[in-house]
Design goal:
about 220 residues; about 45% helix
């Protein structure tokens, strides 16, 4: 059995949670809808359409919804370009290098859409370490449904049994459990340690370095 780990992106590998909260709330406010960055945090990790529905009841006002989404994505893409590789969380490159050197299969499964995920992977230099990328654009049902995680495993050609999923949001933990994976929470993004444990995380770590140490200490599975 191959050792496998799938990672979330925002808040797990990259320090983008504050940018998401700032620009999503800002797009709502600029269109006359009250919202604070703090209100966005609990929804980070969910697909954008789900988060929008939680933040405001748009009903049949599709024009306003489209305008908010377009403004948010445009501003976020610009901010990510400006920040570049400074968005990479401490220790992430080293963690991924170590895991790959020890034979881990590595993928990224994110609730981001394809365009923003590809951009973020590129500007932070993550592509050389990642064998498979699954975005919300690839599945009909996003987190916390298991579809994206299962697709990530399929693209790597590995089974869910014994594979880890590492994420900073409760939806990450819920998705991992639904997919039959082992859930690891990390406190570098949206959710607290307590919330991640309550969601069902098997273990919670505070950094990429701690995640690497834990994963590398696990026994090599038998083939």
């Amino acid at each position: 059995m191959t050792r496998t780990v799938l990672f979330d992106l925002d808040g797990t590998l990259t320090d983008t949670v504050p940018l998401i909260a700032e620009h999503l709330s800002g797009a709502l406010v600029s269109n006359g809808i009250d919202c604070t960055p703090q209100a966005v945090y609990p929804l980070i990790g969910r697909p954008l359409d789900v988060a929008m529905g939680e933040l405001h009841q748009f009903g049949d006002d599709h024009d306003t919804l489209a305008r908010v989404v377009d403004e948010y994505l445009e501003n976020l893409l610009r901010a990510v370009d400006e920040a570049g590789d400074t968005l990479l969380l401490p220790g992430v490159h080293d963690m991924l290098e170590r895991l790959r050197a020890e034979g881990f299969r590595v993928g990224v499964v994110t609730a981001k859409g394809a365009e923003s995920a590809v951009q973020l992977m590129s500007v932070t230099g993550l592509n050389p370490f990642v064998e498979a990328l699954v975005t919300n654009s690839d599945v009909e049902r996003g987190k916390p449904f298991p579809d994206a995680a299962l697709l990530g495993l399929e693209r790597l050609g590995v089974a869910a049994e014994g594979a880890w999923y590492v994420g900073d949001a409760t939806s990450d933990i819920e998705m991992a459990i639904a997919a039959g994976m082992r859930p690891m929470g990390i406190t570098t993004g949206a959710a607290t340690r307590e919330a991640l444990l309550e969601a069902g995380a098997e273990v919670v770590v505070d950094s990429a370095a701690e995640a690497a140490e834990f994963l590398l200490e696990q026994e090599q599975p038998e083939n």
